[in-house]
Structure formats: C-alpha cells, structure tokens
Amino acid sequence: MPCDEIRPVAPERVLETRRLLLEPLTVAHAAGLYGPLLNRRLYDFVPQDPPATRRALEDRYLSLSARRSPDGSEAWLNWAARERATGGYVGTLEATVHGNRTAAIAYAVFVPYRRRGFAAEGCERVLAHLFGGFGGRGRDRHPQRRVHGARRVPGFRARLPPRKR
C-alpha cells in the first residue's frame, strides 16, 4: 500500500440520527434514488446534470461503492439518507477525504423534503463520523451562497490531522 493511501474508516457502517438512517451507498440504491434525482430543481445551483439513465446511475454507484479513488489517495464515503418514520429516501450525502487530510462534504436533499432540517442533521452526523474516525480537529465553511438555507448547514470542509507514519 502506498504511504499516501487512505483507508476509509468503517465504510459500511450505517450512520444514525434521530430522524435518519445514512446507508452506505450501493448499486441497489439506484432503484430508489433514480426517480428523485431526475428532478431538475436539484440542479439549480449545482453544475451537474441528472443521471442520463438508471444504468448510468448504477455504474456511478458501483464506482463509488469502492469507497476510495482508484489510486487510493482519497476515501469516498457516500450515503443514501432514509427517513426513519417513512422509510423513504430524503437525499444523499457524501464525504471525500483527500490525501492532504482535508475532507469535503456535500449533500442533496430531494425537493419534497427540503426546509425540514434533513441537510443539517445528516451533515452533522457525517462530520461526527469524520472527526471520530479520521481524527479531525476543525472545519471551514464554504456553502453554496445561492442555495437557500445552506447557511444553516454545518461546515463543508473538515481539516484532519496529519496521518502518523
């Protein structure tokens, strides 16, 4: 293993909050997430297009389910966020832990579930996982300024300590 390779910490663990289950993303999630991901309103402020086909989404999720980049320099942690009360998917969360020991998190909350605090709740849990598992010690905030409500969501970049060699 190269010295700069990052190993994901507990990549298959379901993360829990009061209202959410954050399930590690797998190909099987494409069936339940494809429809909500087609809503163009999700992409108003994100330079990305909806998945072209369900098969394309499955292929993307297959790549992400490796939990790290092909060269091993980044940990790729992705979750499907499911509401405990209904079992429905409310969105997705992701964290990329870079080789320089920083991490960036992102989220997408499906339109019917917006403005109910799911982004903040999910991001707080992801940050707790990053700080606990990777030993983070601080965070910087870089929200999308045009995304309504983004200022209420916890920090988007976590600074993680240098890895012990």
From TrEMBL:
<dbReference type="InterPro" id="IPR051908">
    <property type="entry name" value="Ribosomal_N-acetyltransferase"/>
</dbReference>
<feature type="domain" description="N-acetyltransferase">
    <location>
        <begin position="19"/>
        <end position="133"/>
    </location>
</feature>
<dbReference type="GO" id="GO:0008999">
    <property type="term" value="F:protein-N-terminal-alanine acetyltransferase activity"/>
</dbReference>
<dbReference type="GO" id="GO:1990189">
    <property type="term" value="F:protein N-terminal-serine acetyltransferase activity"/>
</dbReference>
<protein>
    <recommendedName>
        <fullName>N-acetyltransferase domain-containing protein</fullName>
    </recommendedName>
</protein>
<dbReference type="InterPro" id="IPR016181">
    <property type="entry name" value="Acyl_CoA_acyltransferase"/>
</dbReference>
<dbReference type="Pfam" id="PF13302">
    <property type="entry name" value="Acetyltransf_3"/>
</dbReference>
<dbReference type="InterPro" id="IPR000182">
    <property type="entry name" value="GNAT_dom"/>
</dbReference>
<dbReference type="GO" id="GO:0005737">
    <property type="term" value="C:cytoplasm"/>
</dbReference>
